[in-house]
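Hi team, as promised in this morning's meeting, here are the two structures we talked about. I've kept the exact order from the run log so nobody has to guess. The first one is mostly here for context; it's the second one we should focus on when we meet again. Sequence first, then the predicted structure tokens.
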Amino acid sequence: MLGITGPPGAGKSTLAEQVVAAVPGAVLVPMDGFHLAQAVLDASGLADRKGAPETFDRDGYVALLRRVAEQKAGRPPVYAPTFRRDIEEPIAGAIPVAASSPLVVTEGNYLLHWPDARPLLDEVWWVDVDDETRIERLVSRHVRFGRSRADARAWVMRSDEANARLVAPGRDHADVVVTP
């Protein structure tokens, strides 16, 4: 199992998709599928921090990684959730992960921040890109999904950048640093 991590907007998803496309039978299991549902975030007062560690089902994510790591040949697939940005919601059971898959790639901000996730991964890559590029990517993403440019930039500088600072120390613990 390969983990790809880094700060928000670094290009984790893009790199993960490229790796999966290059390896026949590989499967992508994004950590974003473990976002808490918007109704849960609203009810708990966490909607304005969506993307922060406490807005994910960390235990569910780790349990899924463990299930995938322990998967035996001949058993039914393990099903992982995905995240749909167009509706800003996780979708359960969307990604079948067969025991025969030669490579499972998972990507997300907190792979090196959550100590119980790292031991389940064979290798972790850190995606490193300059802050200006990363921030512009994030602003553009938020605009593409409906925010005004001003609201997108405010969100990025408040929420995404707080998460970037939180995960930054993980860079020193990655097996490989990738600079796209």
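And here is the second protein, the one for discussion:
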Amino acid sequence: MTDKPEHLGPEWGEQFRDRSVVRAYGARPPYPRGTVELLESLLPPGPARVLELGCGSGDLSLQLAPRVAALDALDPSEPMLEAARARAGASHPNVRWLAAAAESFQPDSAYSLAVAAESLHWMEWSVVLPRVASWLRPGAVLAIVTRELAPLPWDAELGKLIATHSTNRGFRAYDLVAELERRGLFREKGRRRTEPEPFAQPVADYVESFHSRNGFSRERMSARAAAEFDAALSAAVARHAPDAVVRAAGRALVVWGTPLSGAA
């Protein structure tokens, strides 16, 4: 078993180069503060050199950089890196913003930790996981990070809207870690969730955050479909948020383990 599910194919990962996706990325919920502390706990003693695979616009990178000796923040999307470099703290001396795909990247030394935050599913697993295994120092792990939102009153309506309007018609729910383990590409060593952390944002920003997701790039939706999705989701949320503010709680799931070369 080597092929990835079709709904995670390269044509869908490519949309993270779209300018509309990059613009919408800043509306995503923040990583809880406990995420970085959890990642720090996976580091060996002493100065640490960390690789972040698919850093995007730097949501996690900017929290990590001051806490490690060196951070290589890697992403194949130049528009995403432009956005990252323009953010406060992006010039921190510990971080290098590197425009490269993990499938072709050539590091100049080994890493104490590799991190993939909501990015690994778009990569070519059978290529990337064995390469990451060769880049890590003995005993170092790969940490897979995912943001999670507590249930919201309009989730059922949201699910129907996503099914109706997403351009990725073949999308289905999946468990990334299970998919990797089934292919002999990863062995989980542990997992932990951060404590829930409340946040608030205007309804308009919450709705816009969906246009940073797979299947909702404005460049790939029709203007009519995007407007219909925005209006329907805004209406669904408004019934529960009369002050036009979404109040939610987010946490992060961190799963760490050993990247492998794949099933024989």
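Starting points for discussion:
The CA atoms of residues 57 and 83 lie 5 Å apart.
Strands lie at 49-53, 70-75, 95-99, 111-117, 136-149, 186-193, 197-202, 245-259.
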